[in-house]
Design a protein that fits this description.
Length: 163
């Protein structure tokens, strides 16, 4: 005597296996054999892919985003004397010289947050500056103050304070 309820109803382990397979592929109906490959949709051109035109070498390479400035945007200019503008992921000017007792104000003009943080030991410790936010600091002691953005450490600059 068989333990199957009905010969056409699969056993529970087979049913669970089939459900797991559907879940693993996101429930995709797989409209064709696996050898069909990827094809572009209407109006799409995928060089180097089945159905695409051109070759894979026609795909442009991405610029080095750590050094490439956005196209169409000029370098930032400080908004006033003793100020530093943060724009295009850089401090402008990168080197500033002021007299002791001067307050320097940083203004973030990027859509991303940035900080003004001393490299190593130092007094500069801003919070994350949202777009449009400012950070003032009054320099009282002569010296060279190197700083960076702690979120984007490739962004560096220097303030030199004289007597």
């Amino acid at each position: 005597m068989s333990h199957d309820i009905h010969p056409r109803i699969p056993r529970l382990p087979a049913l669970i296996g089939a459900l797991a397979l559907v879940a693993a592929c996101g429930g995709s109906p797989h409209r064709g054999p696996a050898s069909a490959g990827i094809t572009p949709g209407a109006g799409q051109n995928l060089p180097g892919m089945p159905g695409g035109t051109g070759s894979a070498s026609a795909i442009p390479e991405m610029p080095n985003t750590a050094t490439a400035a956005p196209t169409g945007s000029a370098p930032a200019t400080p908004v006033g004397p003793n100020s530093v503008t943060i724009k295009n992921f850089a401090f402008h000017p990168a080197v500033l010289t002021v007299k002791a007792g001067t307050t320097v104000t940083w203004t973030n003009q990027d859509p991303e947050p940035h900080t003004v943080t001393s490299q190593g030991q130092g007094p500069l410790r801003s919070s994350a500056l949202a777009s449009g936010a400012r950070y003032p600091y009054k320099f009282t002691t002569p010296g060279t103050y190197k700083y960076l953005c702690s979120i984007h450490p490739f962004m560096t600059a220097t303030v030199t304070v004289t007597q």
